[in-house]
User: What shape does this take?
Amino acid sequence: MVQFHIEKKVVSQKVSLLERWVDVVQNYGRGHFAVFALIIVPFSTTGTALPLERASASLVAQEAREESGVENLVRSVSDRALFLTEEIVFEFSQPIQNDLITLTLYPRTAVKEEWSEDRTRLSVTPLTQWQQDTKYSLAFNVAPHTSSVIYHFRSESLPRIAKESIPEEHGYFFAEKDASITLHMDRDLESYDFKVIPRVQLPIAVAMGESGRNLHVTFLEDLEEHKDVSFVLYAKHRDVSEKHFAPVEEVKVRMAAPQPDVWPVDQGERIALLENRVLPRVTEGKYVDINLKARVTTLFEDGEVIHMFFNSPGAPETPTPPGEYRVENKARRALSASFGVYLPFWMAFTADGKYGLHDLIEWPEDHPERPEGVYKESASSIDRAVSPGCVRHTPSQSQTIYEWAPVGTPVIIY
Assistant: This one.
């Protein structure tokens, strides 16, 4: 406490006003005593100035630290890192009377103060919860001491996403029923509730993983078309109401609709479905995409659909081999060494030349299997799995592919 040496005839009312001013000034500080030496000119009852014995600033500060006793009264303070609903606890070295404690909290927050029966323990609890990731300053004063001690606390942030596990194929997550993505969080999640809200209409569920630090976001229905979807993860402390859910992070997923096990027989329905389901597996340059189940060939350039054709792949007993290939060589009218027939617009996609893309076959005049009066295979074979392993198209479509795709163009068959 700051001591002022004055004569006895000081007006008590004026001294009281000065003491209140000292209280105001000395409440400034940050984690330590804020002590000020003031020059006070007292007055006698007649208004005549009385002599004042001044103490040095260093002596005043030393005496204030020794006599304030605020820090000595506070035996311990709870951890300065606050959980969102956690109480702040002060333990005192002796019982504290009801009217001797002054607490000022910034930012202003509605709190509940509770004392132990023996008045040696004070808990300060938020009526709802602390604001997340916020610094709080609590000025603590015990009368009659004029110095305050300021304690600083910081509330915890809500859990954050440390890593995302999104199973992808060619850069896409296939969003089919029961498929899930995993969010690896930065801490244990026992004390929190979560919800995930997609920015588009999409039924999903969120559940905590066995490790206690993971969240699984599971899709309840198949996605109908490819789209980029953003999800917002919300969290709250388990001890507070639903209104305290707060956004944590946004997750962006490049999603693809799953490929059906059985494609429609009707070509119009199939093409309509393919327009929402076909995926560019190469996004730079040209490539030929062949879907064996749908029996559709799609030409992509820089990830965009250029053409889409029905094809005739290998028969069940002589299937077209799936895989990733490239155009090895080309010939406008190749002669098959294996079958002795012409293969217009030939484009080999295996290095041994055994398999390729081509037009409907043409029989030489002397070919033993040539149907009478016919030299070229019927287009009725398109959209049927009947070839010995190559992939056939109509004449105009074969020519389009031949002229569009140079040697080296990727060919992906699945």
